[in-house]
Sequence to fold (585 residues):
Amino acid sequence: MRDSAFSPAHPALAAQRVRVPVNAPATLFVVVDTEEEFDWSAPFSRQSTSVTAMRHIGRAQRLFDRFSIVPTYVVDYPVASQPEGVVPLAEFAAVIGNLRAARFARDGAWRTTAAFGALDELRHTHIPLALMHELVRWDRQFDWTHRFYHSNNWVAIAARHCFDELLLTADPIEFAIGTNFVFETGFTNLQFVALSALARDAGDPMFETMVKSIQTDEARHAQIGRAVLEILVKSDREYAQRLVDKWFWRTWHLFSVLTGFSMDYLTPLSARRASFKEFIEEWILSQFLEVIDAYGLARPWYWDTFTTSLDHYHHMVYASAYTYRTTVWFDFVVPGPQERAWLAQKYPASWPALAPVWERIDAGWRESDPDLDFAAHGSAIVTFCDMCQFVLSEGTPARNSAQTLVRGDRKYIFCSEPCRWIFESEPERYAGHRDVVKRVLAGEAPGNLAAILTQYFGLTQETWGRDVQRGNYDWLVRPAKPRPILPGAAEAPDERRP
Amino acid sequence: MSVLVPLYGFLEGDTIGLIVLAHDDDPIARVIARLQHSARWRVAGFENARAFHAGRELDPEQTVAEAGLSALERIDVRSAGDPADAS
Fold:
């Protein structure tokens, strides 16, 4: 504990006396004590972890900014804890991919840079594992930083399906195009710049430093991708185009869920600088399209499908996952009226069809008592794509874009045309894999919700996802319920009787 | 003895597809009701729900077997007829 970065004994956190000269002018020190909301007069409750008031801290900060006041925020655990660092073991798989390139790549500069890349990815594995491990003592959900990738949780199955192919089984050329060019140049490099800036604004120096450090590595890895793509285009343009099209779609789904949830739902409204869509359009698409155009490649053939997905996919997955939140290891929030107004403004093409879903979820909570994990929660088996392994939530609420395919004696279903195209391009690579539904029907996984959560996904009541407010939203007014008449209690007097 | 026929069900207005655990002797009307019930946390029930499979509307009084549905086929449930479904 003494060596822990979170220990009060740590030198960085040790109290230091501030000496002020006797004749110094009056100085205003502003210390903002932030903590969870609870009733001072009530007994201590571990359930009092709500921090909704923090959503409005930006208003106070803007006031401080106006008067050039630099406040010191004092935070406790419920305020500081955020879902982060959930896929470090995928970074470890990237060590393998880089080592394969370090051994088999066809150029010395490529091999050397990939060797450094392997060392980088090892670091990216260990930093979040070490940082999140400190938090396990307060919340067992943080244990999933390590557990997640080894579990049969549906999100882990989807992550492994993508990353195992890309990082463990692809040859160095496909690894360089899929990882170094598409994922690291297209998505994560610039994302980490933005995430680091957001973390700084939100007062989270640990996350800011972690992501900034990782970003410098991503920038180096990205340099491999362009050089390999340039040569590949000269020798086999069609193959280069196919790899770009394939990995842009495959990594898009993962990126959309990981980042879209964070930017449009889990970041407090006061701290949001842009919507996920705005971020993608400004930081990802413009530069990615410029680069592929510079190499003489076309934008992926499914671009219209992608633009629909940009407006809908992460919203549809989030709403669906909210109503199956106990199937994952992190918590969810229902967007309140101000958040919905913001989402309606940012997503005019999709929000009108999504708003009724949240109104229905509101109704479910109104009809339920708060604090119930399974209130406004589904129990039917959900469906999964036989390619990306994520839930069938592509298209729009009016028209789900799922596609079916019969191959031999097996039936497959895909969330979208691009996922079906990827499967049909190399069916022998994917045909034997079974999604969660097929595992249930084959008797490999239990069919009822409680059993699959605990026996197959590896979750417990302590770790499964919840509504962060337990359904206690100040804007959610529940109708008054009639007081029950207990057996043997005297009937209430009727004042109308004489 | 009836046979289990799990179907991929997509309800208009919903954000996800669901497995409907139907039986071959279930009428289509019951399959429609079951999908609407399973999706009730996200989609309010609506009247005149109709089921579609492979571009054709299914007779609500026919059974799953009579409608020619087999395991892991896609059905769409909508409030208005739209035969251009994506299966």
